[in-house]
Inverse folding.
């Protein structure tokens, strides 16, 4: 009976997989925490649904972050570096309406879903935007990773 439990434990351990294939090889994980005061004019757009803001402060993500209010009480935040490019001079994305565009490869991503909207059909693997946590506490939105 004891050998049964050892074998079962071993099989369970083998079945656990963190699936490293989902990890974006172009963007490193960075830890940060940044507070956005919604009362400041710089972040006034975040008081309305669908108006994104770029937060380019030092220490926020790799190249900054895009934040958007997606519903009455929900905010989303994404890395501003192109997810399918090594960081380079052209790899900071630009806001175009409620989307962002990578100037290196002209790929477009939705700030409501983080998904690549014009995925090439060339058989290569493409990554969506890197998601950051965004929580609201009163008039403050905290973005972090």
């Amino acid at each position: 009976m004891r050998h049964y439990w050892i074998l079962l434990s071993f099989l369970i351990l083998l079945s656990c997989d963190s699936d490293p294939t989902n990890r974006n090889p172009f963007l490193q994980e960075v830890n940060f925490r940044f507070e956005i005061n919604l009362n400041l004019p710089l972040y006034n757009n975040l008081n309305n649904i669908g108006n994104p803001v770029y937060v380019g402060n030092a220490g926020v993500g790799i190249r900054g972050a895009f934040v958007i209010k997606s519903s009455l009480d929900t905010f989303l935040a994404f890395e501003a570096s192109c997810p399918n490019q090594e960081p380079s001079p052209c790899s900071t994305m630009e806001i175009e309406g409620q989307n962002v565009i990578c100037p290196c490869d002209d790929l477009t991503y939705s700030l409501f879903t983080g998904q690549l909207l014009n995925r090439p059909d060339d058989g290569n693997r493409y990554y969506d935007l890197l998601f950051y946590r965004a929580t609201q506490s009163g008039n403050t939105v905290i973005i972090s990773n």
About this structure: Strands lie at 33-37, 53-55, 65-71, 74-79, 94-96, 99-101, 108-110, 131-137, 140-144. Confidence is low (pLDDT under 50) at residues 4-20. DSSP finds one helix and nine strands in the chain.
